[in-house]
Write a structure and sequence with these properties.
The complex is a heterodimer of chains A (317) and B (389).
Chain A (H helix, E strand, L loop, with lengths): L1 H10 L7 E6 L4 E6 L4 E7 L4 E6 L6 E5 L4 E5 L6 E5 L5 E6 L5 E6 L4 E6 L4 E7 L4 E6 L5 E6 L4 E6 L5 E6 L4 E6 L5 E6 L4 E6 L5 E6 L15 E3 L5 E5 L5 E6 L5 E6 L4 E6 L5 E6 L4 E6 L4 E7 L4 E7 L1
Antiparallel strand pairs in A: 1-2, 1-28, 2-3, 4-5, 5-6, 6-7, 8-9, 9-10, 10-11, 12-13, 13-14, 14-15, 16-17, 17-18, 18-19, 20-21, 21-22, 22-23, 24-25, 25-26, 26-27
Chain B lengths: L2 H9 L9 E10 L19 H15 L4 E10 L5 H11 L2 E5 L2 H8 L8 E4 L16 E3 L4 H15 L3 E6 L3 H17 L2 E7 L6 H14 L6 E5 L6 H4 L9 E3 L4 E2 L11 H12 L5 H20 L4 H9 L5 E2 L5 E4 L6 E2 L2 E5 L2 E6 L31
Parallel strand pairs in B: 1-2, 1-3, 3-4, 4-5, 6-7, 6-8, 8-9
Antiparallel strand pairs in B: 10-14, 11-12, 12-13, 14-15
Helix pairs in contact in B: 2-10, 5-6, 10-11
The chains are: A mainly beta (317), B alpha/beta (389).
């Protein structure tokens, strides 16, 4: 632990403005980007292979999936110090924090289970058998349903958060990576990386409403691989990262039409908005950088070098 | 299996098919007589291929439990020279789904049995080009990478590097010669320059004398960028590297090797597959294991999406544009509807790391870049799949 203390003391700089926190999968670090200056202000060591990252509701804690350390680490975002590890099951890749601000729902990629962890008691509450290589995790805003997507089984598993039982399984295209409910609870979006599609479900009936496809001039269809995505708060626009096609698609959430494509860095993974939603920060795994997109004009405005294989991103206002 | 009844009862509400659907598959192997090789370092595992099929069965079963599907795998292994036709008849009487681990002649014997009409055979161990060409069969799909696909992959990488002057040493066995022929053809296809073409003739025990023997053997080769070695039996190639007259990298069967699968693959989620495989088999995944895994997953994916256990329905679905399978190689896998061959990226790797995954960036194709590897639509003499031109 000695390097942590050292790093924390060296790096605990003033934290004034809003920040974007980016996990660097192959550097075992987090790069902290200042939203005002668009510069990296801190680099914080983590456990091995950090991927999923999310803040507690009051931003007093940041949760990090340290996949190869088989733990979810809890960090003080001010000092950058790891406070303690939560039990997480093996190989935690991605998670969601329930709206109760207390339970983390974790996808354990190697074990084909979803683990529910109580962050207060620091113990595992439940483990639910799901398909092979669970990854995408979504919780409905009303807190009633959690969805795990499994990459090899190609399903979204709908789990009742009260009973911890699977209530439905819906097939999607190959290698589902990410899932999100819309803010009104009405719809669930699931991206399929190898299938090259995003499927939209009706939450009430669990029926497929739409399948969104992408086509970028000059890019082979095979390389258009949807992974992470984010919705604008007005519920009108979705930004979808398209992996090795090096583009982010802008999708109209009412018509499901793709309105434009934005060129970003190589193998774009996940993204996070600035607190005022005027900028979008994308993690570009292969090029090791973050592209800043101006949301209004839908133009990339800056590239920021971070660590090796940036993966997850989270906003700290 | 103890969780199975539990999960099924929970899922009954959501499962689209209430009744259990079972898909039975036979893994039929014709063992090959062992070829004597110089080194004892790398014996071929007894369960080469079989371990991959088992993992595919387990992967299918995990998905299947949410859908009321079960998958059964029966393994039959026929000793060298044994009666493969009789074993195939027995297997086909039990199920029309056959994963066939046998050399080309045996594949044709089985495919041409009256009992095999309408069956779906997935060939995992016959890399011969002729089975994707004039000798193709409508009831046979190929998940193992052909000699052609592998050779094309290697040449694409060499061309990208501009290492275009090549010398070739070919071993004495038929498989060496076939692999050598594929390499030769691929140099022409991609416009590389084959400056020397020699047959391996040394009979010495190279474990003791490699430095002097190989040095002499390669001394008369004209200058070249890369030395290609066709040694499918894994006999002498390992002793050639670093013992050549000129300091040149080796490729083909040693050094930089194109193959259907490589233990060095980590990207595209491959590490998950590698780990799952190692957990069950206690060894790294080999190309034949991968081909067998793909074969099982093909059947599983087809049943899940097409919702039928009829071999004709599954075959049509697998050959349609609808079918795609995530094979942990970064692009969806599908089948060529002109010869039944799996369309797949080919890793070109050295023992410790991936060099490149072919097709390489910059190689272009009108429809699908993966079709730059192996027999493309216009190049194949296969007509058993109908006139798809």
């Amino acid at each position: 632990m000695k390097h942590l203390i050292l790093a924390a003391s060296v790096l605990a700089g003033p934290a004034f403005g809003a920040e974007i926190w980016v996990t660097n999968e192959k550097d075992d670090t987090i790069s902290v980007i200042d939203v005002d200056t668009l510069e990296v202000t801190r680099t914080i060591p983590t456990g091995e292979r950090p991927r999923g990252i999310t803040f507690s509701k009051d931003y007093s804690k940041v949760y990090i999936c340290a996949s190869d350390s088989n733990a979810v680490q809890v960090m003080d975002p001010v000092s950058g110090e790891i406070l303690y590890d939560l039990p997480s099951g093996a190989d935690p890749e991605q998670f969601v924090l329930h709206p109760d601000d207390r339970h983390l729902w974790i996808a354990n990629e190697d074990d084909a289970v979803t683990t529910v962890v109580d962050t207060v008691e620091r113990k595992v509450v439940a483990q639910i058998d799901v398909g092979i290589e669970p990854e995408g995790m979504a919780v409905s805003p009303d807190g009633k349903i959690v969805v795990t997507t499994s990459e090899t089984t190609n399903m979204a598993h709908w789990i009742d958060t009260t009973t911890h039982q699977i209530i439905a399984n819906t097939l999607v295209d190959s290698r589902p990576r990410h899932a999100e409910f819309t803010d009104d609870n009405a719809r669930l979006w699931v991206s399929s990386e190898i299938g090259g599609t995003v499927t939209v479900f009706d939450t009430a009936t669990k029926a497929e409403l739409a399948k969104i496809r992408f086509a970028i001039t000059g890019v082979n269809d095979d390389l258009v691989q949807p992974v992470g995505f984010e919705f604008t708060p007005d519920g009108k626009t979705a930004f979808v990262a398209l992996g090795p096609s090096n583009h982010v698609a802008v999708v109209n959430m009412e018509t499901f039409e793709v309105e434009s494509y934005i060129l970003v860095g190589r193998r774009v993974w996940h993204m996070a908005f600035s607190p005022d939603h005027s900028q979008l920060f994308t993690t570009n795994g292969v090029s090791g950088d973050v592209t800043v997109i101006d949301v209004a004009s839908r133009e990339p405005i800056k590239t920021i070098k971070v660590g090796r294989f940036p993966w997850g991103a989270a906003t700290r206002p | 299996m103890r969780w199975l009844p539990l999960s099924l009862s929970l899922l009954a509400v959501a499962a689209p098919c209430a009744a259990e659907t079972a898909l039975n598959v036979t893994y039929l192997r014709l063992e090959t007589p062992p070829v004597p090789v110089l080194s004892n370092l790398d014996p071929i595992p007894e369960d080469d291929g079989i371990a991959g099929a088992k993992l595919g069965q387990s992967d299918n079963a995990t998905t299947g439990r949410f859908l009321g599907q079960s998958y059964n795998l029966t393994v039959e292994s026929v000793p060298p020279g044994g009666d493969i036709a009789a074993a195939a008849k027995t297997a086909l009487a039990a199920s029309p789904f056959l994963i066939l681990d046998a050399e080309a002649a045996a594949v044709l014997t089985v495919a041409d049995l009256p009992e095999a009409k309408g069956a779906l055979i997935l060939s995992v161990a016959a890399p011969d080009t002729r089975l994707r060409d004039a000798d193709c069969r409508a009831n046979v799909l190929h998940t193992g990478a052909s000699f052609d696909m592998r050779a094309d992959a290697l040449m694409q990488v060499l061309l990208t590097k501009r290492w275009t002057k090549l010398a070739l040493i070919t071993g004495p066995h038929q498989a060496d010669k076939d692999w050598g022929a594929a390499l030769r053809a691929a140099t022409t296809k991609f416009g590389l320059d084959l400056v020397a073409d020699k047959n391996w003739t040394e009979r010495a025990d190279l474990r003791r004398s490699a430095s002097s023997e190989v040095s002499l053997f390669t001394q008369d080769l004209p200058d070249h960028d890369v030395l290609l070695i066709a040694d499918e039996s894994d006999d002498f190639a390992r002793y050639v590297a670093y013992n050549t007259w000129l300091p040149r990298p080796v490729a083909g069967s040693e050094g930089m090797v194109p193959a259907g699968w490589s233990p060095t693959l980590e990207q595209w989620g491959a590490v998950q597959l590698q780990d799952r495989f190692k957990e069950g088999a206690a060894r790294p995944m080999r190309p034949r294991d991968y081909a067998a895994w793909v074969a099982m997953r093909t059947l599983g994916e087809a049943l899940t999406r097409a919702g039928s256990t009829d071999p004709g329905v599954l075959r049509s679905y697998v050959l349609s544009d609808e079918f795609e399978l995530d094979g942990f190689k970064g692009r969806p896998l599908s089948y060529r509807n002109w010869n039944g061959e799996l369309r797949q990226p080919i890793p070109v790797a050295q023992p410790r790391a991936l060099v490149t995954l072919a097709p390489v960036e910059g190689v272009l194709h009108e429809y699908n870049e993966l079709d730059t590897l192996g027999r493309d639509r216009g190049e194949s003499a296969c007509r058993a799949f109908g006139e798809t031109q």
